[in-house]
Each structure stands twice: as structure tokens, then as C-alpha cells.
Write a structure and sequence with these properties.
Layout (H helix, E strand, L loop, with lengths): L1 H11 L7 E8 L10 E4 L4 E4 L5 E7 L4 E6 L6 E5 L5 E3 L2 E2 L28 E4 H5 L6 H5 L5 E6 L3 E6 L2 E2 L3 E5 L2 E2 L18 E8 L3 H4 L6 E7 L7 E11 L4 E11 L3 E12 L15 E13 L3 E15 L18 E16 L4 E16 L7 E15 L6 E16 L9 E16 L2 E16 L15 E18 L2 E12 L3 H5 L1 E4 L4 E4 L7 E13 L3 E25 L2 E22 L7 E14 L7 E2 L7 E12 L3 E13 L15 E14 L2 E10 L24 E9 L1
């Protein structure tokens, strides 16, 4: 079967004549060939691996400059630029051993540099590493990254928080496309499954220069799973079991590629019962079921590269309202519940010219969200359809200056068909134009950019004026100019300094402009304000890194000033026993940062110690006595991990064991409508590696999270107001088979 599929695709592309080729040998400092080195051209979505002699070949390459990355576990990544490719090209590479993580190419920033050359500090984490932590959901794994946390509703719903900002202040990208899924609601989750995702990049701070409105607090950029190496076929099956929720996660994927064509498909299914707290009770109706399917096809030659991807995600989520009531391990959701269907279609194109290139990304996102109270008839049914585009032209390089100009936009419609309306039927139009330049000399990098955006929002009048659920028609237009300036330099051979100043903006969302009714889950009657102005911020970031072969230290500091910060405030009125809240604006500031180190004591090559501390404070500029804190600000956190690496001859390769202690501090800096939260310590244990039994090899991962069954309530848990603790001890067993 495997040979038949490869032969079929090879036959289909046999008439395509190969253009330029690149070949060479990869060795270590002792001139020994390295087998299994990944050789990858990200612009073409094309890669290969070196053979037992360290040799590689890439075919059908464009007649222009091309970036190639060479990555291998235990060695420093090298990023090479091949100038003016000819018919036959040769490049030999020598890799040096490195103790710390590989230096990855950063896709979410403008010029796609490796992190050590990037003017902005971007957190990069592979999904494989997040999965090794035994987390049940993608957002739970993301919350282990310094500076990232989550607003959670049980174990099924989580919203990303970057340095104290969340909701419409954080953008999410997947498959190169902006994800729109009614993210204004705290109970509206991420809507992404980690299967079929390669890695995530986190931009902490305003990124409106590249991404427009809503990138006020930062960006989560998910890179999809890579295609198979040229002329190979791969298939794998993974299975996880979660003791706490009696849950399971299954995923099956296959992919194959020729020199020109690529194809992949992956299906996944997750199912979980109600989660247990530390005393063994289950939190009623926190169960959920998720179905996910991803597929993609790509083609590349000397002139262009094109990749078409599709992702379908279906979520069946219970909404906890009764606290700890009926005890059951059933996975069938009760009432109330949510049903969410997401469709994501993306087309990513790169057109190559002699000394320049054009990137064109097109996307369509359909979010179908229903809420059911006591029957299978939806009381709330919203359909959000979004078409977005992003075109970037990379001008010919002028000496040491790289320049990009681009346009970006979005057309979005929201329609309602349920009995209740949260927001009205509406049309949103975005358009932005930008330019950015990068100047690099010696160990210095200077990057600057400018952007203009316009957002237009129109809604229809609905309901009877003055009654709950009625909406007045609005037609609003918001303009914004933004800029960024960044500088990176090496103060010494081992010391890197980065300084960035950037502005961002966010237009008011539909809920803030038009709300007129009870917001379920908060017991508040919320009234929108159509006169709200655009939020505008300026953030300064300072990053300092010290890195040697066996020691790494970093410190990140930031100050974020936001004009016209939008929030809710009580009016003193009551409607149907619900306090009335208006949306108002005031200036605000957030400040804090992260500090950490990674120590690898020589000659104990198998031992790693990592520690990091993160803090953020958010305040409104208020005339009231005392400090007026912003809501939903995560508590300070100190994270410590000891990791060992080992192998057992003949049956275990790439073995690892981790001991993690996560200490969350008291949160006493709360808004007027929050309560303080107590701190807690969680102990997590992990073990894994590649097991070899004869000719059979598979990866295994065992985790014990909250190992001592600590009873705690996270400050950003939406169940905190009901006094419901977070999840107790959870033992996770995962296996992955390459078929």
C-alpha cells in the first residue's frame, strides 16, 4: 500500500522537469557524518533528511535566493541563505553541539529570522514538548509558557491571556489565517486541537504593525504540521488516557510527498467525563467531546509554492451550572451545553521572482455556535463567517536593508437565528496597509515599520426599542496609525540586548457597542455604548539574554500604556434582580515581566535545571483613593523544573524524566468586582522516551499532574465565584506509533 501511494504520486508528477538542485554533506566538528539532520526550506514547505553518510539533496528549487535551515537534536541550528541558485548547487554544513534548545526560524515576524537574529523576542514551543507535559487541552499546555495564562471554565474551555490581556485583545493565527470565533465571550474557547499542529509562537505585546486591530496584547501563531520529506510516506497513531476524567485522546495521520507535490490528512477525537476535584467529587457537566480533522495539499516548483489546508473542528461542551451535583462518568453532555462547529480553509501562496517574492495568504473561517438550555432547540445560535487576506511583497534587497510592503483585510458577517441574541446581525470590514524595513550590520539589527488601518462596523436594528435584547442600528468607522521600532545588539559574545517600542490598537467589539441584556454566567445586565472610542496603546519591551554552552539567563521587562481601555462599571440600577453594568473607558497601564535561567552543569550532560518567574500588574488611571486594579490579571508564578536525559541500552532511546514544581502566589491586586485568591503549589512528574522491542519502536509518555492532589482555585477560573476548585490529580499515559 505504501509503495502504491508513492508510485501513484510519482507518476502524476513525472512529467514535471526538475529545476535547480542543492546537495551536500552535514558533519560534526570531528568531520563525522550526521544521519537524520532535517534540511528544510520553509518558503517551499519542502524538506529532507540526511542519510547515513550525512548527504542530502533538495530538488526543484527556484532561481533566486533561498533560506535553508539545518536542525538536529543536540546541535545548534544553522540557517543558510543560498544566493542566486544555479542548476546544480553544493553546500556542506558543519553543525556544533549545543546543550540548549534548537534555534528555530520564527514565522510570525516579518523577516522570518532565527530567534538569535530576530529583533523581537518571540517565545517558540513545539507542540510535542507541550504534549510531554500531559496537559489535556492545547490552551492548558500554552499556559505553561512564561507570560501566558488562561481564563478557564472547567477543563473544556480556556481563553489565552498574554501579560494580563485576553479576549479581543489577543489575536490567534492558525494555518497563516486569523481565527475569528466570537472571542469576546469568556466562555468561548480557543477552538483548536493540538493534533496536526507543529509549534506555537507567542508575540507578547502589540503586533498591530503586521496583524492590525485586536493585536493589542499579543499574538498566538500556530504553525501547522509539516509535510513529509520529499519522496517519503509517513503514518502515525497516537493514544492518550487521562485518569481524572476517564478521558481519552486519539489521533491518526498520514502524509506523503514527491519533489513537487505534498499531501497530509489527520483525524482526532477527544472525549472526557466530568473532572474530579481533590476530594474525589466530580464537577457536574464539565464533560466534553471534540472531533477534529485536518488535511492539506501543496505544490511547489521554481516559480511558486502553494498550500491548501482545511480544518474541521466540532465541540460538544457541557456548561457547569449546578456545581458539584450528580456524580457520573458519562461522557454525554447534559443541559445547558454548547455546540460549536468551526471550518477553517486557508490558501498560502509564495510567488518567486529573480530578486524578490510575493506572499499571498487567503482564508475563510466559519464559526457556528449554539447554546442549549433545557432541550435540543438552540436558544442562542450565531453564525460568524470571515474572509481575510494578507499580501506581502518582499522588495529586492538593497545592500543590508530588507523591505516589505503589504495590504491586509477582512470581511465578516454575523447572523443570528436563535430565540436570544447576544449581539446583533452585523457586517465588519477591515483594511490595512503597512511597510517595514530591517537593517542588519555586524551583530546589530534595526527594524522599523508604519501602518494605517480602517475598520467599519454596521449593524441592523432588531427587537422592540427599550426592551431587553433590542439593538439600535449603528454605522461606525475607526481609523488608526501605528508604528514600531526595534533594536537588537550583542553587548558581548554571550550577551544579547533587545529593545522594542510599538503601538497597537483595538476597535470596540460588537458586545461592547451594542449589548442590551443579561450576560449569562455573570448575573449582570450589560448595556453597550455605541460612542466608545478605539483603544490605543504603546508598549516598551526590554530583553536581556546571557547564554553560554552550559548556562542561559534571561530577563524581560515591559510597560504597556493603554488609552481608552474599555471595561464594565456598575450604574447602581437593578433590572429583574440583575445589577446593571455599562461599558465605559479610562486609561490603563500594565507592567511586569519574566526572568529565568537554564543551567546544565558540565560534565553532568544528562541533567538540566530550569526556573522562571513571571509577574504582571494592571491598573486603571482612576481619581479614586488608592489603586484601581484591572480584572483578570494572573497571579505571580514561579516555575521550577529538573529534567534528566538518559537511555537504556537495547530498549529505551531519548529517555527523559522531569520533576516540576509550579508555585502560584496570592493574588491581592484585584478589581472592585473580584475577590482575592490564595496561592498554591503544584507538583508534576513526567517520564518518557522511545521504547524499542525488536524491530518495533514507539514513543511513550507518562505524567502525574497535581501529583499530591492539591485542592486549589485558580484566580482566572470562571468557576471561582461558585467556590469550585480546579482539577485534582491526573495521571496521563500516552503512546505514539509510527506505522
Amino acid at each position: 500500500m505504501k509503495k502504491f501511494i508513492i508510485a501513484l504520486i510519482l507518476g502524476f508528477s513525472a512529467m514535471l522537469q526538475a529545476q535547480n538542485t542543492l546537495s551536500g554533506t552535514v558533519t560534526d566538528l570531528k568531520n563525522q557524518p550526521l544521519k537524520g539532520v532535517s534540511v528544510y526550506a520553509s518558503e517551499l514547505h519542502k524538506g529532507t533528511t540526511t542519510d547515513e553518510n550525512g548527504k542530502y539533496t533538495l530538488s526543484n528549487l527556484p532561481n533566486r535566493n533561498l533560506k535553508i535551515s539545518f536542525t538536529f537534536v543536540g546541535f545548534a541550528t544553522q540557517n543558510k541563505t543560498i544566493n542566486s541558485l544555479q542548476k546544480e548547487n553544493s553546500l556542506d554544513v558543519i553543525l556544533e553541539e549545543a546543550i540548549f534548545e534548537m534555534d528555530e526560524v520564527i514565522v510570525s515576524t516579518a523577516f522570518n529570522k532565527i530567534q538569535s537574529q530576530n529583533v523581537m523576542k518571540v517565545e517558540h514551543e513545539s507542540i510535542k514538548n507541550l504534549q510531554r507535559k500531559g496537559t489535556a487541552t492545547l490552551i492548558e499546555g500554552l499556559a505553561t509558557i512564561p507570560g501566558v495564562s488562561q481564563v478557564s471554565t472547567g477543563t473544556s474551555i480556556g481563553k489565552p491571556v498574554i501579560r494580563g490581556l485576553s479576549g479581543n485583545r489577543v489575536l490567534v493565527y492558525s494555518q497563516g489565517v486569523r481565527i475569528e470565533n466570537q472571542q469576546f465571550g469568556d466562555e468561548h474557547g480557543l477552538g483548536l486541537n493540538d493534533s496536526g499542529i507543529e509549534s506555537v509562537e507567542v508575540i507578547k505585546g502589540p503586533a498591530s504593525l503586521l496583524y492590525g486591530s485586536d493585536a493589542l496584547g499579543g499574538v498566538l501563531y500556530f504553525n501547522p504540521e509539516k509535510f513529509a520529506d520529499a519522496n517519503t510516506f509517513k503514518a502515525n497513531f497516537s493514544q492518550k488516557y487521562f485518569s481524572n476524567t476517564a478521558g481519552s485522546s486519539s489521533s491518526l495521520g498520514l502524509k506523503t510527498s514527491t519533489d513537487n507535490w505534498k499531501f497530509m490528512a489527520r483525524g482526532s477525537y477527544n472525549t472526557h467525563s466530568d473532572y474530579k476535584i481533590a476530594d474525589g467529587d466530580r464537577v457536574t457537566n464539565t464533560r466534553y467531546n471534540e472531533t477534529d480533522f485536518k488535511t492539506g495539499i501543496g505544490y511547489s516548483n521554481a516559480k511558486f509554492s502553494s498550500v491548501l489546508r482545511y480544518n474541521y473542528n466540532e465541540l460538544d461542551l457541557g456548561i457547569p451550572e449546578d456545581g458539584i451535583a450528580d456524580q457520573s462518568t458519562s461522557k454525554k453532555t447534559g443541559f445547558p451545553k454548547q455546540g460549536v462547529f468551526n471550518h477553517l480553509l486557508s490558501l498560502n501562496n509564495v510567488f518567486f521572482f529573480e530578486k524578490s517574492k510575493l506572499d499571498v495568504d487567503l482564508g475563510y473561517v466559519a464559526n457556528d455556535r449554539s447554546e442549549f438550555e433545557d432541550s435540543n432547540v438552540a436558544v442562542l445560535h450565531m453564525k460568524l463567517k470571515t474572509f481575510n487576506y494578507n499580501a506581502k511583497y518582499h522588495l529586492p534587497k538593497m545592500g543590508k536593508i530588507e523591505t516589505i510592503v503589504g495590504v491586509q483585510g477582512m470581511y465578516q458577517t454575523n447572523t443570528n437565528s436563535g430565540e436570544e441574541y447576544l449581539i446583533p446581525d452585523a457586517v465588519t470590514n477591515d483594511f490595512g496597509v503597512f511597510g517595514t524595513a530591517n537593517y542588519e550590520w555586524n551583530s546589530n539589527v534595526l527594524q522599523a515599520g508604519l501602518r494605517f488601518d480602517n475598520r467599519n462596523i454596521t449593524t441592523e436594528a432588531q427587537g422592540i426599542a427599550g426592551e431587553e435584547g433590542s439593538f439600535e442600528a449603528i454605522d461606525k468607522s475607526y481609523d488608526s496609525f501605528n508604528a514600531s521600532l526595534g533594536y537588537k545588539t550583542n553587548l558581548a559574545d554571550d550577551v544579547t540586548l533587545r529593545l522594542n517600542v510599538a503601538s497597537g490598537f483595538r476597535a470596540p467589539n460588537l458586545a461592547e457597542l451594542t449589548s442590551n441584556g443579561v450576560h449569562e454566567g455573570t448575573n449582570r445586565y450589560e448595556v453597550g455604548n455605541s460612542d466608545l472610542e478605539t483603544e490605543q496603546n504603546v508598549q516598551t519591551d526590554l530583553n536581556l539574554e546571557y547564554k553560554t554552552d552550559h548556562f542561559e539567563f534571561f530577563v524581560n521587562g515591559f510597560y504597556n500604556h493603554i488609552n481608552n481601555y474599555i471595561y464594565t462599571s456598575p450604574t447602581g440600577e437593578v433590572i429583574d434582580e440583575n445589577a446593571v453594568f455599562d461599558y465605559i473607558q479610562n486609561n490603563a497601564k500594565l507592567y511586569g515581566g519574566e526572568v529565568g535561567l537554564h543551567f546544565h552543569p558540565h560534565p553532568l550532560d544528562w541533567l538540566h535545571f530550569e526556573t522562571s518567574f513571571e509577574t504582571v500588574t494592571g491598573e486603571k488611571q482612576s481619581r479614586s483613593v488608592g489603586r484601581d486594579y484591572l480584572p483578570l490579571i494572573p497571579a505571580n508564578n514561579w516555575n521550577n523544573t529538573i529534567r534528566t536525559e538518559f537511555k537504556i541500552k537495547n530498549w529505551l532511546e531519548d529517555g527523559f524524566a522531569t520533576l516540576n514544581v509550579s508555585s502560584t502566589f496570592n493574588q491581592k491586586n484585584v478589581s472592585g468586582f473580584e475577590t482575592e485568591s490564595n496561592g498554591y503549589n503544584l507538583v508534576n512528574l513526567g517520564f518518557g522516551g522511545t521504547v524499542k522491542l525488536g524491530k518495533t519502536a514507539f514513543d511513550v509518555n507518562i505524567n502525574g499532574n497535581n501529583l499530591f492532589d492539591k485542592r486549589y482555585i485558580a484566580h482566572l477560573s470562571r468557576l471561582k465565584t461558585d467556590g469550585i476548585p480546579n482539577i485534582g490529580r491526573n495521571i496521563v499515559l500516552g503512546v505514539n506509533f509510527n506505522l
